[in-house]
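Hello,

I think I submitted the zinc ion job twice by accident. Can you confirm which output corresponds to this input? Input:
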Amino acid sequence: MSQKRTIELTCPMCGKPASFTLWDSVNNVLNPELEEQLLKNTFALFSCPHCGGQNYVAYDFLYHDMQKGWMIYLLHSREEKDREKVNASLERMYRLLDGKLGHTMHPYSFRLVHTLDEMREKIIILYDDLDDRIVEISKLFIRERLKNDHVEALALRYGWGAVDGKQQPVMYVFEAGGKMGMVPYTRQLYDVLESFFKLGQDADGTVYEEIDEAWAADMIRKYGGGLSGNSSHHIH
Ligand SMILES: [Zn+2]
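Support: Only one job matched these inputs. Its output is below.
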């Protein structure tokens, strides 16, 4: 179920009071319009009824895809105690539902993200039926390639964009000074990495996992010499 509530806020642009509806929980099956807002980047966007100004309201929420078995939690805080709180509530829910009334929480994937941008990226990845772990590993390779072209990416984000007039999967490249570009993200790279790493099914845990580039770097370190140094050049 999707859960919403209305709060009173002060417009940051004109200073007048206004109300705003926020969603603590977004269920994309029951409320597909919310998924669309997330994809179009209009979710959590406050439009002032007085001055017409628009501003994002930063708040935490849960995104739940029942069909694909995904829960993604947007937690702005990076503090350990807040992460523990979110995981504790997941475990309570898990214990409540798992194995009861024929309802099972398996197999479910749980993810933790810290920004609305990261949330949107996960939803696009889900929408495109990709494995976010492979997408994050791909970023390390794309990052290396960009370095060869003397581009230092602050962040890479999966999405869709027009390259040579054709809409296709891309990695948006965020550089210092607000510069943004994009490079094509080929299915070939994805497939090669997927068959190389053979990650199998997602860990069946009861915590929200942070699957990002840091996770991918750890993962590759665990492979030890298998994918270090020159061998990375074999994957293009
Ligand atoms: Zn206003």
